Amino acid sequence: ACTNNSDAEIQPARKGQITIGFSQIGESSRWRAANTRSIQDAARIQNVRLIFSVAGLSQQKQISDIQSFILQKVDVIAFSPVVEAGWDDVLRAAKAAKIPVILTDRAIRTEDPSLFTSSLGSDFISEGISAAVWTKNEFRKAPGPVNVVELSGTPGSAPAIQRRAGFLEGIDGDTKFKIISSRTANFSRADGKRVMAELLRSHDDIDVVFAQNDDMGLGAVTAIEEAGKRPGKDIKIATIDAIHDGLVALSNGKINFIAECNPLVGPQLMELIQDVFLGIPVPKRVDTRETVFFRENVDQYINDRKY
Ligand code: GZL
């Protein structure tokens, strides 16, 4: 669990120490916990003073976190925006206060790119494309139609919007593939199970599930089993993240493909913060390092996966 040390007593900055305010999405997922731990560990190692706020899934709370960081005159603000839109006003206030902003994990939609200095995170579109390319290859011999259901993430979030866009781009107009239903399951395992059970009751011809993260895919595995079908065989499943439980399901053949979405951005974030603080030019966009997993290559990674 991540501590919300913006409430705890923050030690005053030591001479020359950088202070960063970070507003985190307060999900209870293993992915998010690993993301938080990576940032906190990297700050400690780099001697960066971290004021860390956990905002629940509330954009309003994140906006008030950022306003609080401005009042505290932190050196740099970073946050993982829970949705893409609606940040211009608070980021204009940060700009007026001459506090650089780094977007972490997720990204925002804005007409004014000067409102943030750099954006560090995964390329959600390429994750979606990878899932689609795998799906097309998996069903290359099927005459069609190949019926796809999509379990999408929290509405309005960059990963939910961009993973879908990537999946459609990867399908590339191949009319054999029909997305017969797209439902949000909020990136959660419980919602993934509930929504997949509903989909199984209304469709008896689902060939593949595109789940926008492992947690929803793992929920779908349970629902498919409870419906008396074999996940990974009767209904194929492609997901994104590559958390430990997802890799285990991949190894057991219950999930068929996983595109990695790497939460461990702490070291790259601290490097960006130090460069920004020193006035060293930084790239507008930094993609995190990630790969893809199949049943054939997954076993070597499972034991080292700490989240
Ligand atoms: C993606 C991240 C997403 C994960 C989900 O970078 O924002 O949020 O893919 C998590 O597991 O909910």
Short description:
It contains 10 helices and 12 strands.
Structural features, described:
The chain is an alpha/beta fold. The radius of gyration is 20 Å and the shape is elongated. Mean pLDDT is 95; it is low at 1-7. α1 crosses α9 and α2 (59-71) runs parallel beside α3 (88-96). Helices cover 38% and strands 19% of the residues. The two termini are 12 Å apart. Strands 2-1-3-4-5-11 form a six-stranded parallel sheet, sandwiched between helices. β3, α3 (88-96) and β4 form a beta-alpha-beta unit. The chain is built from ten helices and twelve strands. The protein has helices spanning 30-45, 59-71, 88-96, 124-138, 158-171, 189-202, 214-226, 244-251, 266-277, 299-302, and strands at 19-24, 49-54, 76-79, 101-105, 118-121, 146-152, 177-184, 208-211, 236-241, 257-260, 285-287, 292-293. Residues 27, 29, 31-32, 105-106, 121-122, 159, 187, 213, 240-241, 261 line the site of beta-D-galactofuranose.
Q: Strand percentage, roughly?
A: 15-25%
Q: Give the strand order of the largest sheet, numbering strands 1, 2, ... along the chain.
A: 2-1-3-4-5-11
Bound molecules: beta-D-galactofuranose
* Unreliable residue runs: 1-7
Rg, rounded, reads: 20 Å
Tell me the number of helical segments per DSSP (H or I, 4 or more residues long). Answer: 10
Subcellular location: Cell envelope
Organism: Paractinoplanes toevensis
GO molecular function: carbohydrate binding
Pfam family, one: Peripla_BP_4
List the helices and strands and how they pair.
Blueprint: E1 19-24, H1 30-45, E2 49-54, H2 59-71, E3 76-79, H3 88-96, E4 101-105, E5 118-121, H4 124-138, E6 146-152, H5 158-171, E7 177-184, H6 189-202, E8 208-211, H7 214-226, E9 236-241, H8 244-251, E10 257-260, H9 266-277, E11 285-287, E12 292-293, H10 299-302
Parallel strand pairs: 1-2, 1-3, 3-4, 4-5, 5-11, 6-7, 6-8, 8-9, 9-10
Antiparallel strand pairs: 10-12
Helix pairs in contact: 1-9, 2-3, 4-5, 6-7
